[in-house]
Amino acid sequence: MRARVRRRRSAVLIGLSAALAAVVLIGVTTGDYPLTLEQLSRTLFGGGDRLETYVLFQVRLPRVLMGVLVGACLGVAGALLQGVLRNPLASPDLLGISGGSSVAAVFLLLVFGVTGPLLAAAAFAGGLAVALVLLLAAGRRGEAGFRLILAGIGISFLCVAIMNYLMVRSQVELAQAALLWVTGSLASTAWWHLLVVGVVAAAALPAVTLSARWLPITQLGASTSAGLGVSTSRVRMIAVLTAVLLTAVTCAFAGPISFIALCAPAIARSLLGHGAIGVGASAVTGAVLLTGADLVAQFAIPETSLPVGVVTGAVGAVFLLWLLASTKGRQL
């Protein structure tokens, strides 16, 4: 049984990794100035001309890598929250964590004109504040997820109202920039953006690893977990804070991209089977989904480039309706 589970897990990860490699390859070679595989390999090793070097290293590669990194972070955040709450609807955007991060970042952007790394700190503070409010609102029964989901929906609507008020009261140019940011976009990604997100993701990796190891034990119940030496409350706190950190840093540089954190863990679990939480598979699935969605946003409509949040929102809405229909309220 265990050998079969391990073989399936390996096959799923290999398949997802292959899909990710294919999407990345398409992303760096496709565009108004297409690159052949020969041009790509030559440019990667410093042999391309000036135009090829600019297109690859300044336009496409940062955008594609940001899609991979942000998608992986959101996939992990969604898997952690769904594992802690045992609810397939638990995700940073539906719980209002993305909304809290967005309100804090948009407030600094519109009121004080702050940009750059300070937005990441503000987004983290906003997401953390929402997470603390949710934990208090859920009370002792928060582990079932029902009260926390309802509280998260209410906070999400409140955050949307606050952001709308801020944009209405601000200058038109700043409001347009904030609207593009709130929609979620990977355009204009700089290498330092990748560096910051990568450093935060690397710093969160030990907590992600511990959470992935302990969460299956917490599914056995608080008393059984305590008997095995695992504190349910400690695991919940580590997982929630890690999810908030990953969500906040992605919101700061790519905006609150919706539904990736909801869809990726559900797809990964269905592929893995056997009740797996699938944090690693969720990361790769999120990277594939977001990078692929960005390709659709760039090339689906000729001569029109959409923010990737438009595509993920449209696809995620359909996925959410399917998820609600398939669960039939059993886990909500």
TrEMBL record:
<keyword id="KW-0472">Membrane</keyword>
<protein>
    <submittedName>
        <fullName>Iron ABC transporter permease</fullName>
    </submittedName>
</protein>
<keyword id="KW-0812">Transmembrane</keyword>
<feature type="transmembrane region" description="Helical">
    <location>
        <begin position="118"/>
        <end position="136"/>
    </location>
</feature>
<feature type="transmembrane region" description="Helical">
    <location>
        <begin position="148"/>
        <end position="168"/>
    </location>
</feature>
<feature type="transmembrane region" description="Helical">
    <location>
        <begin position="271"/>
        <end position="293"/>
    </location>
</feature>
<feature type="transmembrane region" description="Helical">
    <location>
        <begin position="237"/>
        <end position="264"/>
    </location>
</feature>
<comment type="similarity">
    <text>Belongs to the binding-protein-dependent transport system permease family. FecCD subfamily.</text>
</comment>
<dbReference type="Pfam" id="PF01032">
    <property type="entry name" value="FecCD"/>
</dbReference>
<feature type="transmembrane region" description="Helical">
    <location>
        <begin position="199"/>
        <end position="217"/>
    </location>
</feature>
<dbReference type="GO" id="GO:0022857">
    <property type="term" value="F:transmembrane transporter activity"/>
</dbReference>
<feature type="transmembrane region" description="Helical">
    <location>
        <begin position="305"/>
        <end position="325"/>
    </location>
</feature>
<feature type="transmembrane region" description="Helical">
    <location>
        <begin position="64"/>
        <end position="85"/>
    </location>
</feature>
<keyword id="KW-1133">Transmembrane helix</keyword>
<dbReference type="GO" id="GO:0033214">
    <property type="term" value="P:siderophore-iron import into cell"/>
</dbReference>
<dbReference type="InterPro" id="IPR037294">
    <property type="entry name" value="ABC_BtuC-like"/>
</dbReference>
<keyword id="KW-0813">Transport</keyword>
<feature type="transmembrane region" description="Helical">
    <location>
        <begin position="94"/>
        <end position="112"/>
    </location>
</feature>
<dbReference type="GO" id="GO:0005886">
    <property type="term" value="C:plasma membrane"/>
</dbReference>
<keyword id="KW-1003">Cell membrane</keyword>
<dbReference type="InterPro" id="IPR000522">
    <property type="entry name" value="ABC_transptr_permease_BtuC"/>
</dbReference>
